Task: structure prediction
Amino acid sequence: MNETDEQQNVNDPTAEGQADTSSVTEENDAVRDDMLEIPDVETEVALMKDQLLRALAEAENVRRRAARDKEDALKYSISSFARDLLAVADNLQRALETLSDDKTEELSSEVKSFLEGVIMTEKELLNVFEKHGIKKITPLGEKFDHGFHQAMLEMESNEHPAGTVVQLMQAGYILNDRLLRPALVGVAKASEDKEEQVEDN
Result:
């Protein structure tokens, strides 16, 4: 190619126009590709948002579970110690039950003072129990409850409805509404006369 041809090509506006058009087309294709990728970006953002919300919810659940476990540990950590002390309360109660009211009048002043000390000790022990969330269960006259009572025997009764606690053999205890020891009880059942009347009717 000679110098004249080169000059013609340089000065040819058609060649420049083709180059510009090609450049614009490439830019348009790039923009179109970017626009095609936008839905994918939106989907990815939605997915990441969902994952973030799930992670936050899981973290909140873990926090609540940890707080509940901590609270339970504080409320029920003395369970074993409390169970060991129940025997002390039982022995104090048995000591008091050995003396009826009419017998106490015959006692000497020293023995009466000793008895008063035992009564005060039992009362103080129960106060300490209550302070720490331990409550005594004495369900005489109440309806039998499998959750808190253990039936040791059934007794025929015309005075009480069937299923009523009519005898207390050993007091039960709960710790902050959780059973430490069930109350050992005797439960009323319908007498044979009543059962026969029901069958006849």
Residues 121 and 201 are 55 Å apart (CA to CA). Residues 13-76 form the longest helix (64 residues).
